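Re: Re: ligand-bound prediction request (bumping)

Still looking for help on this. To restate: I need the protein modeled with beta-D-glucopyranose bound, output as structure tokens. Inputs repeated here so nobody has to scroll up.
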Amino acid sequence: MDIERTLAALTLPEKAALLSGKNNWYTAAINRLDIPALMMTDGPSGLRKQDSSAGANDINAAVTAITYPAAALNASTWNQPLLRQLGEHLGEEARAEQVSLLLGPGVNLKRSPLGGRNFEYFSEDPLVAGKLGSAYVQGVQSKHVGVSVKHFAANNRENQRFTASSDMSQRTLRELYLRTFEIIIKAALPATVMTSYNKINGTLNSQNQRLLRRILRDEWGFHGAVMSDWGAVADHPAALRAGLDLEMPGKGQASVDEIIHAVETGELDEGTLNKSVRHLLHVVDNWLPAPKPGKYDHVAHHQFARKLADDGIVLLKNHQQELPLTPDHAGKVVVIGELADHPRYQGAGSSHVNPSDLVTPLAALKKSGLSADYYPGYRIDQSETDDSLVQTALKAAKTADHVIIFAGYPASAESEGFDKSSLMLPENQTDLIGSLSKVNAHTTVVLQNGSAVEMPWIQNIAAVVETYLAGEAVGEATWDVITGAVNPSGHLAETFPLKLTDTPMSPTFGQDPHHEYYSEGIFMGYRYYDTHEMHVLFPFGHGLSYTSFEYTNLAIDQNERGATVTFDVTNTGDYAGQAVPQLYVANHASHAPMPTKELRAFTKIMVEPGKTEPVTLKLERRDFSWWCERNHRWQADSGDYEIMIGESSRDMRLQTKLTMDFKNSPAPVTSETYLSTIIQDPELLKIFKETIIAPQANGDNSGNPFVDTDENGESLALQDRMFLNMPLRAVIALGTPAKLINNFIFVANQRR
Ligand code: BGC
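Reply:
Sorry for the wait, this slipped through. Here it is.
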């Protein structure tokens, strides 16, 4: 599409229609100019494409699709290549269904374990969420399907999500709640970003110019379109002025009329409107649907859902090698809990998928090789104890060699749209687990839940397997891990606190209908528990294996831009297994308050028994930086740091000190910076082209020497020695608007 020509041909009502979603799942088409409608559907864990026969508001009437594990389990894989493959699978499915945009991934941080939507989010840590989210986006988009990274930003509670304000310092916002988005925008270039419902420090996100223009576009270089969450737009012209492009879904003709009215009365400048139309046309042009419906291999995709769950399931506790229960040596096994028969395997709300082929744990039991009797023990839709179910289960458990109890929440307890009020499992399940542990010391608890739970029974239980919401292959994957067909390699991407009142925000979370006070600041998740040396149930990054790993030979190669960290991992046990080395940095150089350590790199590697694998992890300047509110920029201080390599935030295997010298850090860009400096620095040159040359070439300002190019498309002025010897402030005299120069200076300083 010739975007500029199309833009010029559009009438005002047509432009207004393009920026107002046609209905829940489509943008408007302009047939006169061959602009097609784009279809979007929810993800993030499977397609929720509305069935054509279903009513618009029947959110669960979707075509059948592969139901992959929820993000909580996907994150526990810590496996970037696997997340990319998840994206590729989803992309293929979306393409087959002629979907142009997949509404995911959801990448908000799990600030409180009460957050109703935690199951749909990756982590309490922005690096884990950012890296895994990037891999997912790259995978989907590699199949010619765009994504919508959501929910931008600081949407960490569900109660009053349409109106509450997330109130926090700029440092907290930058280092935690924006950081994930920053990583994904820069690494994966998502097609669109979805703004969240909430406010940040009093300003509605869909109307927040600083967030949508200054930070997202100017600083991070986002080029896609910004869409609203469903119904998040309160004042449409104000949202467009602030940088929102597409209202989803539109309010029909009313949305179109309000834009037309705003332009006609001067409330909305047509140039601003054009910018949004341009963004939308680019998205339409880049992410056209497949010309006809296609097919994908359902069986292979189901197997991938199983592989993903296998990789993410976390073995939390394994007293005296209770697990694995190999079929030949397991003896008499008793399976208890209605969740074995009616599993929780996905979250509720907009991510709900109609599964293609749900395999329950009970159905998968036979194929696992284990033979076991099953007793429901409790009813999942009740919290009261059913005595007769309990007595039958206890009687069977008494004489068993091993007991496996499935426990978790009913679907009605965990969903988008509301927060939880407790971290306790239903009372009937808690009591039953306690009773079972008294009659049989070989009791394993298998959990199906969206986020951290309290475990008052943990001391007397032999093993705990966290399967979160494991997708449609839940049954197969659960037994894969329990029988040892798969060696568990999942690690928690969130801390499990001992009790709700240990969480730093517990006195205030969700209390004020209008405000959520982030008074813990940057001390959230392990950054809080570790700094205050608190006991936790299971630390961030924790996950056991049926083998053991030894870490040796830590070496660091550093310069003023960062460091390269190398070490070896040896499998010292009998099973092949995957290790998840985690690199934490402790900052002793800065005077600002710092957590005792922060995760700065991680990987996942397969190591055969007795073998050693080398690992290399890279640290950049940003990994030593913090957000300085006074200077409005990332600051890396010279001085002492500590590098720690661990298997969780509480299990360090290697550590060493290093002194960083950032004195040679680049000088800030000012109006006195010479063009010759800019042309010698590839990063600065890139920003110069983006923020000064491109907008002028787009027609904002013609007749400017920077716009004329040679046959390679390079600016002629930037090759002219006379121009190179000019500082930025003199460039204004050549016809470049001061606002573009100031913007370049701002963006350059933010990105360096
Ligand atoms: C959710 C989004 C979702 C949208 C469309 C909203 O309520 O917050 O995550 O993509 O609905 O279903």
